[in-house]
## 1
Amino acid sequence: MKISKKAQYGLRAMVYLAKAKKTCSLRKISFAEKIPFDFLEKIMSQLEKAGLVKSKKGTGGGYFLARKSNKISAGQIVSLLEGTKPVNCSCCQRARRCMTKSVWRKVELSLHKALDINLSELI
């Protein structure tokens, strides 16, 4: 299983904001975390639309966490940027009689359990 760069970068940016505990510019996050600026801009926009970060324009502007770091989990971030299920059985024609469905359910549960950690625990 492979987690995309989008999810990896998104989680790193969120941990950076949690650690900083202040408004940070995209340039600063991009430089510090070695994340391509244009890609980070798209990721942060998605995180903002989901209500995980807020932005401030103008001098001293940038992004900051919309909630306390102990109220945002890695799972929320990864699910938002990756999708909620590693395998989507609901759209498969064989879903009713699939012999491997239980395996994918176990993978999904394991992934959710592993990502059930909040940003404050990561810093």
## 2
Amino acid sequence: MAKLQMPADYAEQTPNANILATEAVMNTIRTAEMAFDRIGKLLRPLGVSAAGGLVLGQLRDHGAMSPSELGERLIVTRATVTGLLDSLERRGLVVRSPNPDDRRGLAVAITPAGLEVVQQVRTIIHGRETVWMQALSAAELQAYIELHHRIQDSIANTEG
């Protein structure tokens, strides 16, 4: 695969920009898209999307919650959550019921079948993550994580 690099006239096109910052962001996005695409392909035989696997994981780890709380945890729109839940519910992996804490709302819970699927999802994905990240030492992985946290904080604390 060709490496992402900026054109030779980058500085002329965008004189106030930082070429390394641009390459870093573009490569981060490419890496995330590659991983997300690969995860989707790995999960296809289970009939679960990557986002569906995330929903199951949240419900398994944190218990029943409202669709809006799921949306906040996954950083997706309410419409996206509704579509994911519709799909997972049709497959018997989650169940929606009246929320005991909010009579007007719903609570979503994982079913026993959903627990089985999320275990399969995690076995597949975490095994592949280990292979993908073996290019880095443990110290490099820790530094990589810390750098991402710093970047995430910077993005979160910057307008626009």
## 3
Amino acid sequence: MSNAGSGYLSVGLMFVVTIILGLGLVWVNIERVDLAYELKTLDRELQEKQEQNSKLQVERHYLLAPATLRDRAEKAGLRPPRRDQIRTVQE
């Protein structure tokens, strides 16, 4: 009877280990799916920020273009200095 009791204990122990390993596998798969979703979200966010950065760079270049600055200065009433308004500083 000792062998039979030992056999049942071994089978029971293997059953418990199998359940634990199965639960571990399910947990790992859930974590993998969560990480994949988070990675996809971060990748989308990165792409949006890169697009926004590109648009802002284009706008910056437009705003700093000499023709744009000249037009804005004229609209603000600014004009190039006259000769008598220019001072040079010598060291």
